[in-house]
Design a protein that fits this description.
By secondary structure, this protein is an alpha/beta fold. It has 2 domains: about 220 residues, 3-Deoxy-D-manno-octulosonic-acid transferase, N-terminal domain (Rossmann fold); about 190 residues, Glycogen Phosphorylase B (Rossmann fold). About 45% of the residues lie in helices and about 15% in strands. The chain contains 18 helices and 14 strands. The protein has a 7-stranded parallel sheet with strand order 3-2-1-4-5-6-7, sandwiched between helices. The longest helix is centred in the first third of the chain and has 27 residues. It is globular and about 65 Å long.
Length: about 425
């Protein structure tokens, strides 16, 4: 009955949310490419190629989840060398990143909309043997279609933010029937087991394996990428304050902090990667009003001795850029809520600072702060003081990084553990 109501209301919801969805797609660009796949329309060459492959279907949202999916696929391919995969992603940035990084044994497609005729068409084309949903992507029609076809379906690297948990608990009677159909849920933290049980998942199907995202194994970082770009602008020897995945308002704060710090640290360079690259123009205008000399990562490099800010307006390179940083501020944590992933900066060997709002990474952020593996600040003034202290004390920076890496050690091997579990997954009765 709940699924019937969901499908009955689905067209109404699409009508209400489609304008905003299309605007977002238009701003990010690339929305026309393979648009039909979102509607379950696939060309005959793709159908023919997938017919005999018997792929595992990996479903991710955007760049962060795609990175997890690719890392897990590599590990599964190591265990089963002939395995083929289909990776579906929702955003154009995720699609572009997946296309750029996927190998020839992964077919990259757009995620089909979760309306029953569209999802049914997707299943007919992909013909998966298993379905792996990354982090939080549990859709009623997809899960129900998998059950009807007796296809095992798992949620890997399962993430449950406080906001999501609260919302799910509020609507438990509506969402529990979908969660009950999951054959396996691989959680990042031991505390999450009881949370997923409370939402309707059978406790026997919930396994604590650690976080693929925080797993220090097989996390390739190319420090040469950033060095080459910085050398093109003639700033490769500067001390770098890096703002990673910043949100609206945080760039201006970092700019003000940077100007204050430069009185004592004259060789500073501010590098920022806005969370959404379509905001780059707005960020650039804001900083130019503050009299910054700015360049973009995407523009042809030219030596500029007065350059004091570089904006990263490309996607999929963030973890490589962390290697160029001296200290890192993790965005969406000072003015916005939720936070961004600090693990990539830590694995690049950089000390991290973040604001009070790290809800999406709560357990990790708490462990880092309590064990001296990160610095948490509550205001722009605290951020300036903390950065000044770290810039003046390289030994303190090294100590923070060492402590942070110890925190991540509990997740070592999470990718391999998850791969083994899902490869042996069969349909629960």
């Amino acid at each position: 009955m709940i699924r019937f109501i969901y499908n009955l209301l689905w067209p109404i919801g699409l009508f209400l949310f489609l304008p905003g969805y299309l605007v977002k797609m238009f701003r990010r660009g690339g929305y026309r490419e393979k648009f039909g796949e979102r509607l379950g329309i696939y060309d005959r060459h793709l159908r023919a190629r997938l017919y005999w492959k018997k792929p595992i279907w990996l479903h991710a949202v955007s760049v962060g989840e795609v990175m997890i999916a690719l890392k897990l696929a590599e590990q599964m391919r190591t265990l089963e060398p002939d395995q083929h995969f289909v990776l579906t992603t929702t955003t154009t940035t995720g699609f572009a990143f997946a296309n750029h990084n996927a190998t020839d044994w992964i077919d990259v497609m757009y995620s089909p909309l979760d309306f029953w005729p569209i999802m049914r068409a997707a299943f007919e084309a992909i013909r998966p043997t298993k379905i792996l949903l990354v982090e939080a992507e549990v859709w009623p029609n997809m899960v129900a279609e998998a059950k009807d076809r007796k296809i095992p379906i798992a949620l890997v690297n399962a993430r449950l933010s406080p906001r999501s948990e609260k919302r799910f608990r509020m609507f438990r009677r509506l969402i529990a029937p979908t969660f009950e159909l999951l054959d396996l849920v691989c959680v990042q933290n031991a505390d999450d087991v009881e949370k997923w049980k409370a939402l309707g998942v059978d406790g026997a199907r919930i396994i604590h394996v650690g976080s693929i995202k925080y797993d220090p194994e097989d996390m390739p970082i190319d420090p040469q990428l950033a060095r080459t770009v910085l050398a093109g602008f003639g700033v490769e020897n500067r001390t770098v304050i890096f703002g990673g995945s910043t949100h609206a308002g945080e760039e201006k704060i970092l700019g003000e902090v940077f100007r204050a710090l430069r009185r004592d640290f004259v060789d500073l360079l501010l590098v920022m990667a806005p969370r959404h690259t379509e905001r780059t123009g707005d960020v650039e205008r804001e900083l130019k009003e503050m009299e910054f000399q700015i360049a973009r990562r995407s523009q042809p490099p030219a030596v500029d001795p007065f350059l004091n800010c570089l904006l990263i307006d490309t996607t999929g390179e963030l973890r490589h850029w962390y290697a160029a940083a001296t200290i890192v501020f993790v965005g969406k944590s000072l003015l916005a809520h939720g936070g961004q992933n600090p693990a990539e900066a830590i694995l690049a060997g950089k000390p991290v600072l973040f604001g009070p709002h790290m809800e999406n990474f709560g357990p990790l952020a708490s462990s880092l702060v309590s064990r001296g593996g990160a610095v948490q600040i509550n205001s722009a003034t605290e951020l300036r003081r903390a950065m000044a202290h770290l810039l003046a004390n390289p030994d303190e920076r090294e100590k923070i990084v060492a402590n942070a890496r110890q925190v991540l050690e509990i997740h070592r091997g999470a990718t391999a553990r998850t791969a083994r579990k899902v490869l042996h997954l069969t349909k629960a009765q």
